[in-house]
Structure prediction request, 426 residues.
Amino acid sequence: MSSIKVIGGGELKGEIKIQGSKNAALPIIAATVLNQGVTILKNCPRILDVFHMISVLEELGSVAKWEGNTLIIDTTEISSTKVSEGSVQKMRSSILFLGALLGRNHEVSIAYPGGCSIGKRPIDYHLDSIKRMNVNQEFLGEDKEIIHCYTDKIIGSDIFLKFPSVGATQNVILTAVLAEGITRIYNAAREPEVVELCNFLVEAGARICGRGTAFIEIEGVKKLNDVEYSLSSDRIVAGTYMAAVASTKGDVVLKDPPLHQIDSIIRVLDKIGCKIKTGNDYLRIRCDKRLLPYKNLKTQPYPGFPTDMQSQLMTVLSLSDGKSIIVEEIFESRFQNVKELRKMGAKITVDESERKAVILGVKNLEGAVVKAHDLRAGAALVIAGLGALGTTIIKDTTSIERGYEDICRDLSNIGANIRYCSENIL
Ligand code: UD1
Prediction:
């Protein structure tokens, strides 16, 4: 397991190019299974989560290769309908193969993903919705941990989601694309990553209306065709680097940020005193003084403030001049970073029952040895280390590599004193 060493205190200056979107790449890689042919994905991030989705594809009998950041996937052959238990446990997004394999083969066996560090994360909406599409389900294994779904014909249906779940919306779309008839999703997720999955599928010959709205309609088609698709850049990576500038001060230009997707992040950072300017293909963020607190920051489904930016903003607000409140409305266990930030001198209290954190900003954080509990929490600790006095060691940083191609490369390019180090030198 690797660690990251950060020596804080310096200002950030320069330009960063934003990598391709992780959360768009993952469902699209699953979707390639629906086409018996070749898919070319450009601007694909070379991150652990993507490598993992590729290994599931290979386990199913497909072939994938990289040319720079272009991923070429050949799904002409799929010899298995089983996604192994190990794969799903390694990464929850493997559950997207549920809809994709069903769509292609009318059968899939996949292990239950179980909870993770940010919450229980059930898949009841996925399963209830797919059941309505004429799909039989049985639960096998000693603990009924294997979901076996099969049908002779997927039939388009009306699906009502209790909550606009991103994963459930994507799984229903994947199941519906090659189904017989029309599927209508009510209360669909409006996240940009759902839109991107639809854009990709439409390029490949699918018929989908209502992308980006809460009502999506999919008319089943007989088959998909080969497609070349370029992924947009990652809104959470862009937001993370903006938060890094906010907590350290500096003047940084992000190249190719997904501007229309990061409105809510821009709004919050602007309100606490960052100076932000945008152009066609860039965003410039400047921070030169201590930031203001934010009275009530709530995470919400898109277009609200994203839960995946909550930890990073908590770091920023820990250094602001006053009292802030963050309410986490999406995942029930997403305040684990509080105990790590406290090791660095942050003053934060949590009311678990109300999913509320109260942050009393301090003038300085102090370097410490801390642990990355999940991907975004890890990135938030990197930001804390950059804004702190002295040296911070972040342990267990493999989780950061799940979503950031090379956070040390990107941040050292804009002047940060940061590098990977091995755990045994600590
Ligand atoms: C996706 C993103 C993740 C992001 C999240 C919310 C990917 C790979 N991951 O996760 O980064 O933080 O959206 O924007 O794109 N729920 C249920 N039952 C279900 C499904 C969801 O109760 O069947 C609950 C979850 O526990 C959670 C909420 O709904 O509390 C939102 O989850 P969901 O939108 O499904 O998130 P993911 O798709 O897992």
Observations:
- Residues 235-248 form the longest helix (14 residues).
- The chain has two domains: 2-19+233-425, 22-230.
- The domain at 2-19+233-425 is CATH 3.65.10.10 (UDP-n-acetylglucosamine1-carboxyvinyl-transferase; Chain).
- The mean pLDDT is 95.
